[in-house]
Amino acid sequence: MCRLLVLMRQIAVVLLLAGVLQAQGQAPRSFIGTIAGFRPEKAQIEIRPDKGDPVFAEISPESTALKVAPGTRDLKGAEAIQITDVTVGDRVLVTLAPGAQTIARIVVMPAREIAQRNDADRSDWEKRGVSGIVSGKSGNRITVKTRTATGETEVLVAVDDRSEERRVGKECRSRWSPYH
User: pLDDT at residue 65 above 50?
Assistant: First the structure.
């Protein structure tokens, strides 16, 4: 009986140590999402991941926050910010501490800066682009029918390797469009 108790204790200790070592060896969990809200009384941020259910992550004194410009693909130009600079709607890459719901690092792309970049892209597209229905193609030239206030016109567009074409399906067009 005594041997059985000693053996059971040894097994329990081994299992306990295995669990501790596994928890220590866990890689941090990271995900991309959008800030959905705050719980200041609990020092939590609600994040809506791109995939999965909302996450309530805790902020700790060790949590770090970095800001990157929209479109950035690495952290070379990241700047340190205060966690209080994060706002609802910001896009984030969150890394949680191993085995916890505590934020180790949060990388932020501010929603305001994303909107500014999108507006600049749209403005650039309106200045340098043309929209309409392709009515013909011959070699590296495309004829596009466009509609203006003065009526319908045809624009001849020369394309090269750097030209970009964006197609929009019928379900994306306005139901009042005359081009259906």
Answer: yes
Q: Which domains does the chain have, with CATH numbers?
A: 26-114 (2.40.50.320), 130-161 (no CATH)
Closest CA to 111 of 81, 88, 82: 88
Report pLDDT digits (tens) over 36-50. 999 999 999 999 999
Q: What are the residues whose beta carbons fall under 8 Å from the beta carbon of 132, sequence distance 6 or more?
A: 144, 145, 146, 147, 155
Instruction: Return the DSSP state at 88.
Output: T
Strand order in the sheet with 44-49: 55-58, 44-49, 29-39, 91-96, 103-109, 64-67, 79-81
| Integer Cα distance of 113 and 3 in angstroms | 68
Phi (first) and psi of residue 151, to 5 degrees: 125, -170
Tally of CB atoms within 10 A around 85: 11
| Rounded-to-10 torsion of CA 65, 68, 74, 79 | -60
Instruction: Look at residue 165 and give its three-state secondary structure.
Output: coil
